[in-house]
Design goal:
Radius of gyration: 21 Å
Strand content: 15-25%
Distance between the termini: 13 Å
Number of helices: 15
Number of strands: 14
Helix content: 40-55%
Largest sheet: 7 strands, parallel
Mean pLDDT: 94
Strand order of the largest sheet: 3-2-1-4-5-8-9
Length: 373
């Protein structure tokens, strides 16, 4: 098949392309590299700058490119907003893709109308990015998402594309649940793809038999995105980690990165044993999954609903935490600091978990089956 993957989210499309190409398909990735993360793509579609000049140049780039995006058997959109335009300006470009290609699939991989709407209802999830302890959460970023998706043109575009496309693909438990009430007949859950051979292994903690009386530090890593720390909960996780390092300075060492490119991030993270990520999530997303492929332990989202969806009854390597500072602190204390002899095996379980559920070729076969159904 000739396949177009349009847009990027945390390396999903770039990795999926590798899997589909290994199965013999002709795949083209068109994206902006997920902005500063700068993931691989075949055709670069970045908006170079803000302001009128940047907008004109970006529009010119899109208009010149679009006639080339025809004749594909499958087009997959990373999100209903797959271009850096307002929602009402994207719809004509979507219609062109629909008219001049075969099947069109929409990815439900992150923030969109249904993610915000269902996350706010306070009943579907015990907690979410938008709702916790019976109350709505507030931050500048959250307020922007509400205004953009619930009351703006992006939400309207989301509904139109969801109605029109051939299928909706969810990569997280949360995305899957949010689309089922309205689009159960066309929504499919497929785990995110990870190419384990492309990641550099992390440092393994000493085996239980090699641990001596001398304390062996546990290296913990946390990545912070400017402007989104409060939304993702890394502000709370950072405070818990700082407390833990202060209370156990010989056992816990903290490293952090702030909004660095993907290649730089990968180099920084390799010497750590533990990654703190996504406080309000039920499910590990791409950043956590890539870290698990390296052999890192995830402190974050690993709720029972997630394991049930993927049919996993044995491997539960994620240290699941509730969205508050004390629970993050206590879970890390009880499961890591007080049980160093279990750390290495948990790291190995993380690697096995990725091989079992997220191998990029195995995942690509699931996409292939959906495309041809």
């Amino acid at each position: 098949m000739k396949i177009l993957l349009l847009g990027e989210y945390s390396n999903v499309h770039a990795t999926l392309a590798e899997g589909l190409q290994a199965l013999g398909h002709d795949v083209t990735v068109v994206s902006d590299g997920d902005r500063w993360k700068n993931y691989h793509r075949d055709i670069d579609l970045r908006r170079r700058s803000l302001g009128l000049g940047g907008a004109i140049r970006y529009l010119t780039d899109v208009v010149r490119l679009w006639p080339r995006l025809r004749g594909f058997d499958v087009v997959q959109l990373i999100n209903p907003v797959f271009l850096d335009f307002k929602g009402e300006r994207i719809w004509p470009f979507y219609k062109y893709l629909r008219r001049h290609n075969g099947k069109v699939f929409m990815g439900a991989f992150g923030i969109d109308y249904f993610w915000v709407k269902v996350g706010m209802d306070g009943t579907t999830f015990r907690y979410s990015d938008f709702h916790i302890n019976g109350k709505q959460r507030y931050s500048t970023f959250i307020n922007e998402m509400k205004a953009t998706w619930l009351n703006g043109s992006k939400g309207e575009l989301n509904l139109r594309v969801a109605d029109d496309c051939d299928g909706i693909i969810a990569g997280l438990y949360e995305n899957y649940v949010t689309y089922l009430p309205s689009y159960s007949g066309k929504t499919t859950f497929i785990p995110f793809p990870i190419n384990s051979s492309a990641v550099t292994p992390a440092t393994l903690y000493p085996d239980a038999s090699d641990l001596s009386d001398k304390p062996t530090p546990i290296h913990c890593f946390i990545g912070i995105q400017r402007g989104r720390s409060e939304y993702k909960g890394t502000d709370i996780m950072l405070r818990a980690l700082e407390r833990l390092e202060s209370d156990y300075p010989s056992l816990v060492k903290m490293e952090k990165a702030e909004s660095v490119p993907f290649d730089t991030y990968q180099k920084m993270i390799g010497s750590s044993h533990v990654l703190l990520d996504q406080l309000y999530s039920y499910t590990p997303a791409m950043n956590a999954l890539m870290a698990m492929a390296k052999g890192m332990i995830i402190v974050g989202g690993g709720e029972p609903e997630h394991y049930e969806l993927i049919g996993e009854k044995e491997l539960h390597p994620i240290i699941n935490v509730q969205p508050n500072e004390d629970d993050v602190y206590n879970q890390m204390l009880s499961q890591l600091v007080n049980q160093p002899h279990t750390i290495r095996q948990r790291q190995l379980d993380s690697i096995q978990y990725i091989h079992r559920h997220h191998d990029h070729i195995q995942v690509a076969r699931q996409y292939e089956a959906l495309y041809t159904k």
